[in-house]
């Protein structure tokens, strides 16, 4: 791994020199939250939305936000390469406690860490990815972007071992989201995605897609999607900040639509790229 500069607790330093205590509650309990924020042409994309979601995640785990929005911007910006497309990974844990105890310690200083990595959007108009459907085995607070991701890790690993890019998750027979993405489907000509509930992460990419659909009067809906409805969809996409909009052309070994990225994907891929350029 290249020895790039990272941010840790007030310092910028080479990745290899970044160290935290083994008593950190992030390490011991997965007691922390995170954000992934894309930057296009060196500029943080929809930062306010990401910081709002971060504030909600911190509130959900009862951890005080260590910085204002302005401080976060100032802290993250030096990590970005001017002009480059990248993503920032930002993590806050409850910090290192004197002893291992599930209950919060009385006084503790949170650990704040940020690093930058690449972005790999899907641009190929002729090919998509494979996905598998799986039972959603995660906890009930999926709207909190918690670092406690073991269920997501296991689900995604199973997908990868089956040659798939993503595990698409179902709870009680209804679609929730992907192991690391939101899911959209084109059903009877309507771009459809499950509504925001604690069962899914309120994705920023998801919001942008719905905004673009409404702006361009493309039929869209936030409603529950059964497994049967998804299997009969003419298009399925997975969406996230680092992967943008990826067309799924094979679900559980069955072709989706005509087995190629569909006309909705082509339209939204362009709308999304144009929107990025308009902000950069
Ligand atoms: C479980 C889950 N759902 C949805 C998303 C998409 O969210 P966003 O578009 O804000 O990246 C992610 C992102 O990694 C995720 O991990």
CATH superfamily of the largest domain: D-amino Acid Aminotransferase, subunit A, domain 2
The gross shape turns out to be: globular
For the termini, the CA-CA separation is: 28 Å
Give the CATH topology of the largest domain.
D-amino Acid Aminotransferase, Chain A, domain 2
Biggest pleated sheet? 9 strands, mixed
Low-confidence stretches: none
State the domain count.
Answer: 2
Q: What's the gist of this structure?
A:
This protein is an alpha+beta fold and 280 residues long. The chain has helices at 25-29, 47-60, 69-76, 150-161, 204-215, 227-231, 263-279, and strands at 5-8, 11-14, 32-40, 43-44, 86-93, 111-117, 129-135, 166-171, 174-178, 182-187, 190-193, 220-222, 235-240, 244-251, 254-255. The protein starts with a strand and ends with a helix.
Structure description:
This protein is of the alpha+beta class. The protein has two domains: 5-117, D-amino Acid Aminotransferase, Chain A, domain 1; 129-279, Alpha-Beta Barrel (D-amino Acid Aminotransferase, Chain A, domain 2). Helix content is 26%, strand content 29%. Strands 7, 8, 9, 10, 11, 12, 13, 14 and 15 form a nine-stranded mixed sheet that branches. Strands 2-1-6-5-3-4 form a six-stranded antiparallel sheet. The longest helix is centred in the C-terminal third of the chain and has 17 residues, at 263-279. The protein is globular. The chain starts with a strand and ends with a helix. Bound molecules: pyridoxal-5'-phosphate (PLP). The site of pyridoxal-5'-phosphate has 13 residues, from helix 5 and strand 13.
């Amino acid at each position: 791994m290249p020895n790039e500069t990272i941010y840790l607790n007030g310092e910028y330093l080479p990745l290899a020199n970044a160290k935290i205590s083994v008593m950190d509650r992030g390490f011991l309990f997965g007691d922390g939250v995170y954000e992934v924020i894309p930057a296009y042409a060196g500029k943080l994309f929809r930062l306010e939305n990401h910081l709002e979601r971060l504030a909600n995640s911190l509130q959900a785990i009862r951890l005080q936000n260590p910085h204002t929005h302005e401080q976060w911007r100032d802290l993250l910006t030096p990590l970005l390469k001017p002009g480059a497309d990248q993503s920032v990974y930002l993590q806050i844990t409850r910090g290192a406690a004197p002893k291992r105890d599930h209950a919060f310690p009385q006084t503790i200083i949170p650990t704040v860490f940020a690093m930058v990595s690449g972005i790999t959007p899907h641009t190929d108009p002729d090919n998509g990815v494979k996905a598998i459907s799986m039972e959603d085995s995660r906890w009930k607070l999926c709207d909190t972007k918690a670092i406690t991701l073991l269920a997501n890790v296991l689900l995604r690993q199973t997908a990868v071992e089956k040659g798939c890019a993503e595990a698409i998750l179902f709870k009680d027979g209804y679609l929730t989201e992907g192991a690391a993405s939101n899911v959209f489907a084109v059903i009877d000509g309507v771009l459809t995605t499950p509504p925001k509930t604690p069962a899914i992460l309120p994705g920023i990419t998801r919001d942008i897609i719905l905004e673009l659909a409404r702006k361009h009067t493309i039929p869209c809906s936030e409603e529950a999607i059964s497994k049967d409805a998804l299997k009969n969809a003419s298009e399925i996409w997975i969406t996230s900040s680092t992967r943008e909009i990826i067309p799924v052309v094979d679900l559980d070994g069955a072709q989706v639509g005509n087995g190629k990225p569909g006309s909705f994907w082509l339209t939204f891929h362009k709308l999304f790229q144009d929107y990025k350029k308009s902000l950069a």
